[in-house]
Amino acid sequence: MVNYNLLIKEAQNAREYSYSPYSNFKVGCALLCKNGKIYTGCNVENASFGECICAERTAIVKAISQGDKEFLAIAIVGGIDEICDFTYPCGSCRQVMSEFCESSLEIVLFNGRERKLCTLGQLFPNSFDKKSIK
To answer: Is residue 35 domain-resident?
Structure first.
């Protein structure tokens, strides 16, 4: 069973390390592996906007680079200082998630007031992934 409160807290902590001087929009995430290990990530912006990396991809790349490739859940926290809706993964993050995560990956979104839960399959149906290539 996934401890969503712990994942959200880890994502909130990671959010504090965000480097976002251009958008001023901080995002943090926490990725839970099947072995119980948690990898965190934050968004890191760059003056050359195409070189920015999102919190989700940061955490996934950290996990993969350490040999962890089986994931249960990811918590994403962004925009809690503003009055906004939930912060969903961008298209690039959804594509990376579809490469490394099962469609059953649980995604918990937190906006500072409430949380929302969905799966990768619900968020990104009919994705183009490694199963699509024959």
So the answer is: yes
